[in-house]
Write a structure and sequence with these properties.
Number of domains: 2
Structural class: alpha+beta
Number of strands: 6
Largest sheet: 4 strands, mixed
Strand order of the largest sheet: 4-3-5-6
Mean pLDDT: 92
Number of helices: 7
CATH architecture of the largest domain: 3-Layer(aba) Sandwich
Order of helices and strands: EEHHHHEHHEEEH
Length: 160
């Protein structure tokens, strides 16, 4: 079974069906099901959520409630590269708002959004745990410390 999503892209439900088959009859399996489905599709798309609801005998609103409660789940497409700018106390004091602003300017997206080309998603996070390197941004698994707004354009180009 195939359908289209918000971006008018064809959705192949076979991956979701296989995941749901794997967890059929398993009580309390919603979170692992959503994790695997998000891994397969990149985010939790509405038509796939509706399939999960039907197969797990739940309402779609219950599933969306769970998905929006946990920060690990995403209901919108995300970029190939995820930029997380630390806004914890040490980073904030050392200029994190300026770093976030510069990333937003260079990428031409507001915080919490994905670039049109789906290459980058820009997020603020509470703490990365690298306070001695403040201010810090993490791009995918790479930590960039002691940042200044002037570093941002070259970092973005390097990742591209």
């Amino acid at each position: 079974m195939n359908t289209t999503n918000d971006q008018n892209e064809e959705i192949d439900f076979s991956k979701a069906e296989a995941i749901l088959d794997e967890y059929e009859g398993v009580h309390g399996a919603l979170i692992p099901v959503l994790q695997k489905i998000q891994g397969a599709y990149g985010y939790l798309q509405e038509p796939v959520i509706n399939l999960v609801a039907e197969r797990m005998n739940m309402s779609a609103s219950e599933i969306v409630g769970v998905a929006t409660f946990y920060a690990q789940f995403h209901l919108k497409p995300r970029g190939v590269h995820i930029i997380k700018v630390c806004c914890g106390t040490a980073c904030h004091v050392k200029g994190a708002p300026n770093i976030v602003g510069k990333f937003s300017e260079v990428l031409d997206v507001p915080v919490g959004s994905t670039t049109e080309d789906k290459l980058f998603t820009l997020e603020e996070v509470a703490c990365i745990g690298a306070c001695s390197l403040a201010p810090v941004a993490m791009i995918d698994e790479d930590v960039h410390g002691k940042l200044g707004p002037d570093n941002v354009p070259s970092i973005v180009e390097e990742v591209k």
